[in-house]
């Protein structure tokens, strides 16, 4: 943690950045986002196992951009999100400094370019725990109707609060489909059909883009396992297209690339 505070102090004092977006101690057990603008305030930064939020969600917010160039405390999921946003032309090269941190917090690697972020990410592992793999296997073994019943039951608890959307750094549309009423694509009320359509639509919009940070599940006030659905789509995209999101600045997107020689009949 001291290494992070020292680097933040150096960047702010030298004028390399005008704000450091990192983690601070919240009123609850989990850390919260903090925006440090003065070198004298870097002691507010913390780094421990509760620092899970994907801070890249703040990169496109106008009020944050007005603060000036940012240094972003970047756990692995944040680094991947930066690359995915860059691939979608939402983050420009040189617009931020990613402070890549080791799990122990003992080392901080400042990454000032997107190429540097990409090279750093290429050397990282993104393992899943045994419990997560077991959950995915159990889900994959379900029959089609069993799987549909499972999600209908889960989505029946949805409040349509859109906390998942607000927490996701890749849900950045200025006007979401659920806010379009001419025509109205997704029913507004929190009933079974509207809930199913909203959650399936959002999952499909994240297919080939999700970096598996888990903020959607952590944000859900009723505990819907949204990350399970997104993880299954992450695996599906990799199995079918050998593509992982958030690994490169440039390249084709698995779900938005057309090739005339595609062997699948539906493309013609």
Set down the secondary structure blueprint:
Layout: H1 2-13, E1 19-25, E2 31-36, H2 62-65, E3 70-74, H3 76-87, E4 96-101, E5 108-111, H4 114-122, H5 130-140, H6 144-155, H7 163-167, H8 192-206, H9 215-219, H10 226-241
Parallel strand pairs: 1-3, 3-4
Antiparallel strand pairs: 1-2, 4-5
Helix pairs in contact: 3-4
Summary, kept brief:
By secondary structure, the protein is of the alpha/beta class. Helices cover 38% and strands 10% of the residues. The termini are far apart.
Describe this structure in words.
This protein is α/β, with parallel strands linked by helices and 268 residues long. It has 2 domains: 121 residues, no CATH class; 112 residues, no CATH class. It is built from 10 helices and 5 strands, in the order αββαβαββααααααα. It has a 5-stranded mixed sheet with strand order 2-1-3-4-5, with helices on both faces. A hairpin with a 5-residue loop joins strand 1 and strand 2. Helix 3 crosses helix 4. It is globular, with a radius of gyration of 20 Å. The N and C termini lie far apart (55 Å). The mean pLDDT is 91.
What features would you highlight for this structure?
alpha/beta; five-stranded mixed β-sheet; 268 residues; 10% strand; 2 domains
- Give the DSSP E fraction (strand runs of 2 or more residues): 5-15%
* Biggest sheet overview: 5 strands, mixed
The beta-strand count equals 5
The helix/strand series, from N terminus to C terminus, equals HEEHEHEEHHHHHHH
Radius of gyration in whole Å, from Cα?
A: 20 Å
Number of domains: 2
What gap, in angstroms, lies between the N and C termini? Answer: 55 Å
Task: Work out the helix count.
Answer: 10
- Residues in helix, %: 25-40%
Helix/strand/pairing class, anyone?
A: alpha/beta
Averaged pLDDT, please? 91
Strand order of the largest sheet: 2-1-3-4-5
Shape assignment:
globular
Low-confidence stretches: none
């Amino acid at each position: 943690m001291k290494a992070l505070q020292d680097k933040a102090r150096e960047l702010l004092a030298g004028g390399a950045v005008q704000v450091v977006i990192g983690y601070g101690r919240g009123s609850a057990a989990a850390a919260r986002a903090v925006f440090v603008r003065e070198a004298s305030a870097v002691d507010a930064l913390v780094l421990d196992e509760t620092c899970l939020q994907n801070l890249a969600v703040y990169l496109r917010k106008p009020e944050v951009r007005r603060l000036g160039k940012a240094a972003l405390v970047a756990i692995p999921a944040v680094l991947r999100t930066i690359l995915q946003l860059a691939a979608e032309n939402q983050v420009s090269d040189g617009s931020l400094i990613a402070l890549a941190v080791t799990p122990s917090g003992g080392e901080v690697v400042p990454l000032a370019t997107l190429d540097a972020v990409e090279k750093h990410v290429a050397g990282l592992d993104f393992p899943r725990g045994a419990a997560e793999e077991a959950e995915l296997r159990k889900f994959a073994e379900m029959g089609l109707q069993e799987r549909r019943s499972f999600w209908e039951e889960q989505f029946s608890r949805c409040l349509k609060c859109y906390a998942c959307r607000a927490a996701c750094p890749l849900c950045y549309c200025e006007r979401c489909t659920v806010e379009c009423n001419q025509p109205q694509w997704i029913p507004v009320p929190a009933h079974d059909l509207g809930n199913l359509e909203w959650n399936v639509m959002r999952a499909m919009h994240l297919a080939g883009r999700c970096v598996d940070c888990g903020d959607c599940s952590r944000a859900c006030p009723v505990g819907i396992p949204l990350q399970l659905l997104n993880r299954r789509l992450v695996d599906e995209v990799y199995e079918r297209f050998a593509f992982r999101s958030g690994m490169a600045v440039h390249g084709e997107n698995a779900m938005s690339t057309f090739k005339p020689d595609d062997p699948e009949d539906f493309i013609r």
